[in-house]
Amino acid sequence: MDILVINCGSSSLKYQLINANTEEVLASGICDRIGISGGSFSYKAKNKDKITQEVELKDHEVAIGIVLNTLIDKDIGILSSLSEIKAIGHRIVHGGEHFTKSALINEEVIRHIEECADLAPLHNPAHLLGIKACKHLMPQTPMVAVFDTAFHQTMPPRAFIYGLPYEYYEKYKIRRYGFHGTSHSYVSKRTAEFLGIRLENSKIITCHLGNGSSICAIENGKSVDTSMGLTPLEGLVMGTRSGDLDPAIIDYIAQKENKSTQEVLNILNKKSGVLGISGLSSDFRDLLAADEKGDLKARFAREVFAYRVAKYIGSYTAALSGVDAIVFCAGVGENAKFIRGKIVSHLQFLGITLDEEANLQTVGKEGIISTKDSKVKVCVIPTNEELMIARDTLEIVSKL
């Protein structure tokens, strides 16, 4: 069964066409700068050269139309007809408390996604545009919503409730929701397979480290705590996000700099993190290059990031009352050898010993980077959110 996986951002659209039976990627690409001048479209089909074009993308429907037309193009396409696409899986960032698992998209599901828009104002409205566009262009094709927040709905109240008047939770559902759930779910399952342990009897800490980063404590295959909160701003120091800080800082900066609360929140979301600390870049590759040239702020930013990750791992080891495996994934987790080494250096109290050679050799691929006598396994498992979306979509539509 061929499934089209769609991930809509406010001005971008990533896609993959996946054979859900063999789990093979047939085609993939991105539409960028939707609704903005200077748009572009990329497409890479199996056994074909990558194509990149400059194209004006007025809206998400135009972008999806280009994707669909390319997939069936007689010269570069990989399908003979759109009828070969049996389902569409949509990544949805926020599902609130309503969705504990993926769902077949209908009017009720769309309404709930709309209701969560104020919790994810940059994401949910964009996802809805993608759903609307697909619905218009392929009205008979079933669609499934796969929620970033759903995996974390197994967290106990002690983990998701904030120390606020309880009425704010009752009235506005202010609580920890967590994100990257599709990634944490996939990686934890794959880790259990890779290590030959039973997921139903395991304690795993997954570290999704990229420009946006989060950590998840997973017990017996279920999320019991995670670092992101009501929004993706909480938790680790990230590429441009501040992560955890004293809430009073917001008002303090607003008064000192004569800024509104919204302006300060924009700084915390887009101008902070390792970008803010280094004054250089949010890209860890840039920070590595600058560090090697003696840039002390770049080195400091990387050390702060590694320290925060290690601190969360320590706290989640306590939350789980032990840990079987610590797993790195996503762009930084899969590739940044120095960062992984710095993080593990803080965790020797757990009886962890890093295999230096394995750490150097394991880049963008699965591997164990701890020594054989290490009391806790430390792994690198590349994430695959699109495959997880395809799997969930297949499970749901196969029952129709």
UniProtKB/TrEMBL annotation:
Mg(2+). Can also accept Mn(2+). Pathway: Metabolic intermediate biosynthesis; acetyl-CoA biosynthesis; acetyl-CoA from acetate: step 1/2. It is found in: Cytoplasm. Its cofactor is Mg(2+); Mn(2+). Keywords: ATP-binding, Cytoplasm, Kinase, Magnesium, Metal-binding, Nucleotide-binding, Transferase. Mg(2+) binds at residues 7, 385. CDD domains: ASKHA_NBD_AcK_PK (cd24010). GO terms for biological process: acetate metabolic process; acetyl-CoA biosynthetic process. Pfam families: Acetate_kinase. Substrate binds at residue 91. One of its GO terms (cellular component) is cytoplasm. Belongs to the acetokinase family. This is Acetate kinase. The gene is ackA.
